[in-house]
Amino acid sequence: MKILLIHTHYQQEGGEDSVFQQEYSLLAKDNNIQKISFQNKKGLKGLFQFLFSIWNIFAAIEVRRKIKSFQPDIVHLHNWHYATGPLIIRTIKKNNIPLIITLHNYRLICPSAILMHKGQIYTKSIKTYFPLQAIKDKVYRDSYLQTFWLAFIVWFHKILGTWNMPQKYIVLTEFAKKLFTESYIGIDKDRFIIKPNFSENPSLGYTSVKSDFLFIGRICEEKGIKCLLEAFKKVHYTIKIGGDGPLVNEVILAGKEHPNIQYLGKLEKTLVVYYMQNSSILVFPSICYEGMPMTIIEALALGTPVLASNLGAMPSMIEDQFNGLLFETNNPKDLVKKLKEWESISSEKKREFYLNSRDSYLNKYTPEINKKILLNIYSNSIK
């Protein structure tokens, strides 16, 4: 099978970029596969990319050339925003090549992309013909103009029928599928198919004692860092925090006032694995509708349970009292309650959590399982 992968990289590398590279490496082992990558720019170049993303003829020409030279059986598009633009979808369709698109976020149904604005879940655009309220609220980069232009690009291609051209849309959870199918984007329900992310199967080292709580991720409002800090200021349990982001100074300040809050800095991958494997439980207090957090999958792969907010994708990944615990989203009091509950669990019972976490990974998130699902999607779309 000849497979062409297409992706637009963000200015700062994130989860979508990692998933794209993971899937490329996974498929390249025994398939004829090529890729085209675009890069979002900053400054004036980035502005022109954004403005012309509504009808990016240059990206379309590049994709057309690649299709002509490679003659793929199927094309799989990850991110089109904004250096690429939706025109390449029409280009692929015009060349009669089956197209799969992975929806890593919610940009098609809201300009915010993450369904969050000013620290709150934002769903005002989902069932509207055109997201006027989102424009008024400046949900994209806190800008009227940029929010309008992104909303107009999506709406314009909705009117043209662009979004109904792909054979299938891959979504990561049943929760995401429900949001898209109940929205006003107008994509046929049978075009959505669920395929989770995956993580490489790690080498498990010997750990005699798993202790302390751990947070790994971007240190920002939507990841629930304020809720996390407020909760740990009220307990004596140690929380180790690894990552970087706009609220890092709040973490450092909290650590000076509360010694149980320990900031590890931005960690290399090997150190992330080390801390995950040696932590009693990973705390994932996100207050936004996550796609499918790689951090949770990586923790489960290492046999580390997760204490997660009961929101969006998390309940589909974490079964309360099985491979972790769930707490009420953005509720520090409930988080404190769950912290105490976890500390009260016996070592023997915690071992069951560790084994269940590892089994969750082996049953759902391995490369082998993911590859089988992905190739099945491709084969069914080519027929």
Question: How do you describe this structure in short?
Answer:
By secondary structure, the protein is of the alpha/beta class. It has 15 helices and 14 strands.
Notes on the protein architecture:
The protein has 15 helices and 14 strands. It is globular and about 60 Å long. The strands form three sheets. Strands 2-1-3-4-7-8 form a six-stranded parallel β-sheet, sandwiched between helices. The chain has a six-stranded parallel β-sheet with strand order 11-10-9-12-13-14, sandwiched between helices. The protein has a two-stranded antiparallel sheet with strand order 5-6. By secondary structure, the chain is α/β, with parallel strands linked by helices. 42% of the residues lie in helices and 16% in strands. Helix 3 packs parallel to helix 4 and helix 8 (225-232) packs across helix 13 (332-344). The model has no long low-confidence stretch (mean pLDDT 95). The protein has helices at residues 15-28, 43-51, 57-70, 87-94, 132-136, 144-160, 174-181, 225-232, 248-257, 269-278, 294-301, 314-317, 332-344, 347-364, 367-382; strands at 2-9, 32-39, 74-77, 99-102, 116-117, 120-121, 168-171, 192-194, 213-216, 239-242, 261-265, 281-284, 306-309, 324-327. The relative contact order is 0.11.
